Structure prediction request, 352 residues.
Amino acid sequence: MTCRSLTLSVALFFTSCGPAPAEDHSENKGVVTAAKLLAKHGRAIATGVAAICYDVYSTVTGDTSPTQREAMEKAQRERELDNAGADIPADLRADVGNTALREGQFAANDFNGDGVSDFVITRPSNNTWYAKDTVPSVWAEKGDVNVASDYDGDGRADLAIFRPANGVWHVRGRSPAVWGEPGDLPIPGDFNQDGRADLAVFRPTNGTWYVEGAAPVVWGLPYDVPVIGDFNGDGTLDITAFRPADGTWYIKGVGNITWGQSGDVPVPGVYRYRERTELAVFRPSNNTWYVKGSAPVVWGQHGDIPAPGDYDGDGLDDIAVFRPSNGVWYVRGMAPMQWGQPGDNILGFFNP
Prediction:
């Protein structure tokens, strides 16, 4: 059981409205820490999503050599081209992969346990959470990251933040817990299948995942976006690295699948199949959603934050965006919902 919003929050944590930095592949260039991201891009995140703009190294973590890996990936792509949907844009068609994601059956941001995603915003001006039909709660400091999920297994999302400055988790109803260090990126999920979200972080400095109660796992590069989901449908979460530079998903134990292009934001979810989730990206450059196996959907406008969730209670995620400029939620198939005000966001308590 995991909260579908977790992957989205971490993915958007990497986004900015500025141009991509100049390429620098020297070994001494360092890595972007969470604290630096907050300091540099906090305002951009609060005012909307734009391109993910971090370059990556050309090598991939794995046991195969670059030559073997290239040959394997080329053969895989060639086999899968026949299964690529005709409705997929030409620029993506050549790199279509074949996989399945599945996250938990717990609706994203379901704070009242009714099985429906709630409209929830964070207000940096007063460090307060506002969930529709719920009493507002002050539970944060400036710079904290939203990591709400079901940490106690009661089927309801718990207010929770991760503090990048010191690696401390503050989950409402629990004592603060140190799990991580400055610069780590939070990526909680139910990795041990006990019905509760586990504390977990991805450490960009060494490409390592640290999951509470489990051995560390090296999987990813400094500029990858950590993602979780049940990619092979076996009921367990798979550790995954999404590479913003080229739209490739590196799924541990499954394979490498390219679905997207540079600047896309990963938004995997249960869009069509309740038993698994699907690869999906949101493209800020044209406000288009690309769900694998489905026709592209234009939904949103410049500055919107993608916020998929099960807002109608049918067990499937709905395409949705939050518009920070007016505090309105736009859910496909539903009337616009005013829940928020200019300057609010859904990612955390960054400077407005």
Notes: The radius of gyration is 19 Å. The first helix runs from residue 5 to 13. The first strand starts at residue 120 and ends at 123.
